Amino acid sequence: EDLEKNQPLFNDGIPSLIFMPSLSSETILRKNGNLIKLKSVWLCCGIIKDMQWEIPDGLAYITVIRFDPASFYSIFNIDSTALINNTVCSFEDVADTKWSSVITEMYTKNKVEDKLQVWNSALEQVKIDDFLPPILKSAIGFIDTYKGNVTVSQLLSLLGENVNQKWLQRNFLRYLGITPKKYISLQRFIYTYEMYEREMPTPLNMAPFEGGYYDYNHFFKDFKQYLGVSPKHYSWN
After folding, report:
1. Cα separation values, 39 from 5, 92, 134, Å
2. What is the pLDDT of residue 229?
3. Where is 118: in which H helix or E strand?
4. What pLDDT, on the 0 to 100 scale, is given for residue 193?
5. Which pLDDT belongs to residue 27?
6. How wide is the angle at C-alpha 158 spanned by C-alphas 147 and 217, nearest 5°?
7. How far, in Å, CA of 43 to CA of 91, rounded?
């Protein structure tokens, strides 16, 4: 609701599939002045930076399915590292062709719940590997607990001497498609963003400090990097 014509596109790093209302729907994104055209089903993952979504006229709704990262890359047999520089793309451009028939069948249904049931039925036929190394689970848990206010070095200390930085880097990329440093930075920004939005009218210049930023300029830089506009020019609807 209340989306502007050019809406900043943003996510929290969790792989998600976005379904437009109809098979003929086209999605247009804008990044660095370039247009990106997507099909009716598209994928968001990793970190999205400075990208605008040109909301089509009369858009009634979108449907979003979020996945556990380890499960997502396993289900669709996608290499997470291959999407690091392609974090928003048409799903059919990176997934196996067998999913095209699922998409086609889904769009024969009119109700959202019926569309989702098509996906539930398809996913029930897939062997899902949701394994995540226990140490990686702990790392993610620590980052969430500290709301992103932790360095990679501090994280390694919390995990114990048996974990080194190379292992952490390699497994974050393998299972989440994002480096630990970038994941930490993203979670801190999300916490600060949500805190301000939740506690409005908290003074905007106070939110960064309450969220763990050392100064407003650092928060300003992250905000501009992720959303493409300054906090003062952002629509806080």
Report:
1. 19, 8, 37
2. 87
3. helix 112-124
4. 87
5. 92
6. 35
7. 5
The pLDDT mean for the chain works out to: 89
What is the longest distance spanned by two Cα atoms in the chain?
56
Q: With a cut of 70, which residues of the chain have pLDDT below it? A: 1, 198-205, 237
Using a 10 angstrom Cβ sphere, with 0-12 exposed, 13-18 middle and 19 or more buried, the burial of residue 134 is exposed
Length of the chain: 237
- What pLDDT, on a 0 to 100 scale, did the predictor assign at position 216? 83
The three-state secondary structure class of 35 is: strand
- Quick one: tokens of 103? 């998409």
H/E stretch holding 41 reads strand 41-44
What DSSP designation does 233 have? G
- Pairing assessment for the beta strands 63-66 and 16-19 based on DSSP bridges: antiparallel
Handedness of CA 172, 207, 66, 60 (dihedral sign): negative
Chain CA centroid to CA 226, Å: 11
Q: Are 180 and 207 in contact (CB under 8 A)?
A: no
Q: At what angle do helices 98-106 and 112-124 cross, to 10 degrees?
A: 150
Residue 136, CB half-sphere, CA atoms under 13 Å: how many?
A: 22
Q: Quote the pLDDT of residue 177.
A: 87
